[in-house]
Write a structure and sequence with these properties.
Elements lengths: L1 H25 L3 H16 L11 H7 L1 H6 L1 H17 L3 H22 L4 H16 L5
Helix pairs in contact: 1-2, 1-5, 2-5, 5-6, 6-7
Length: 138
């Protein structure tokens, strides 16, 4: 029961936070949105900005393990939005890492959910295109 409550709470928190990010992006406050994103992942996922480099992908996947298992769609969306914000902030290295982690999370959702979700396919194709633009083929 406790784990189910935790999962639901995280999904709700990520949903609320994505709404906040959306508002900041609409008002073109990218720097503030990126800073808010970094604070969120530090507080909720125990990931610091310094951790977000390509050499740490395996470590980051370990830190995200429960999210990858319990709420991969929401985690993927959060990471993809973070990647967009990192791109706007001129942090291509962070963008690359966040997009790759988002891709892994979407793949996990696709493999484990047992349910087809059209929006997930659209999001995955969008992410695949973004990765291709920075030279990463998945």
């Amino acid at each position: 029961m406790f784990q189910k409550d935790y999962i639901l709470r995280m999904i709700e928190e990520i949903g609320r936070f994505l709404t906040v990010l959306s508002g900041l992006k609409k008002s073109k406050e990218y720097k503030k949105a990126y800073e808010e994103f970094l604070e969120f992942i530090s507080a909720h996922l125990n990931i610091e900005e310094d951790d977000l480099n390509p050499e740490n992908i395996t470590l980051l996947e370990k830190k995200l393990e429960s999210g990858l298992t319990d709420y991969p769609d929401e985690l993927a969306q959060l990471l993809m939005d973070g990647g967009e914000l990192a791109s706007e902030a001129g942090r291509r290295d962070v963008t690359e890492v966040l997009y790759l982690l988002s891709w892994k999370s979407y793949l996990q959702a696709e493999q484990e959910s047992g349910a087809y979700r059209f929006n997930r396919m659209v999001e995955m194709n969008n992410l695949k295109e973004r990765l291709g633009l920075i030279g990463i083929n998945v």
